[in-house]
Amino acid sequence: MKGPKHIVLIELESSHDECLYSQVLFLSKRKHKVSMILSPHAFENTKHFHHLCEQVYMAELNNAFGGHRKMIKEIKQYCKNWKVDTLVFNTAQGSFVRDFCFFSLFYRKKVLGILHTIKKLEGSFTQRIISLKINHYFIRSNLLYGKITPEKRKNIGVFYPLFFDYAKNKNQTSPDEFNIVLSGGVERRRKDLDGLIELIRENEIPHHWKFVFAGKSDPKNEIYQTLKKLVKSKKQTTQFVFFESFIPTNDYFQLIAEAHVILPLIHPNTPSNEEYMTRQISGAFNLAYGFQVPMLIHNSFDDVPEFQASSFFYSTPELIQILKEVDNNRELLKEKRAQIYDYPLFIFDHQQANYLKLIEN
Fold this sequence. Notes:
The chain is an alpha/beta fold and 361 residues long. The protein has helices at 20-28, 40-45, 67-81, 95-102, 125-131, 142-145, 150-153, 193-202, 222-233, 249-257, 271-276, 283-291, 305-310, 319-328, 330-342, 348-360, and strands at 6-11, 33-38, 55-58, 86-89, 110-114, 137-139, 156-158, 178-183, 209-216, 240-243, 261-262, 295-298, 311-314. It has 16 helices and 13 strands.
């Protein structure tokens, strides 16, 4: 490193702002200056660590004609005024990033970006335009890195944004409860809910268990209605927690922190596997690593080293039985939490070095 740089992180969409805190930590602890340009949604969700930044600017993207050009001009002006060296798009995809890159081919500042799905590397015309300017990307998983063709890997860095900051509230969980958290709402694309519904039909769920769907669910969704009717028919409404509105970020992190286990519910030969294990990762993974909460992962993925360190494995018919075994022997949870804490991949210094490798080169 030749000296401290000024890096601006840009997130103009309403997702993936959970990746920003780790980046701010990595950079500020290395004595770099950090600023952020954020959508109103991301601005609100990151207020608790704005004090770590030089500047934080809220910018509402206008997708009407001329709106992108106006925003591009503003961002470049901020970067000039703030003497920024490097720009990092926290979500390096979509029409605005495409336009920024197209109109910045001769812009002399370094521009990097995070890809949240490697599908974008498989022939997206928009992504090809973006890559004319952003020729180095970050992805968030070694698992995905292994699925990228060797010729494309040379321009890819991997870091895990698994550090989170939130105001810890008093723990609302009683000692005899067993909280099973499923990150996100009730929907088929990202979870094998049909498999879960079948298991609930066939098994008696212990009264002290709580399945917490930590995300907004659509009341009109057919699978959501089916699950609610089933739970009601089995008189288990207190054992399933649903949300039909947005969960504030701090409350969401509190739910994760109070989990005994995290259940991504990704199963082979279902849309959940297509969605996550091949093109992108579930946000549940980094939450589990960051909060040191053990996961339950389908045993078809038991060859993945980071899952071996962080998870209990099951076959779908045995899921309820494995949950009972973990619940009945809480020492297993303590041991697994310690294993996650000590696993080298999840240590701050390791992830900071991986991130800074692209930033500082």
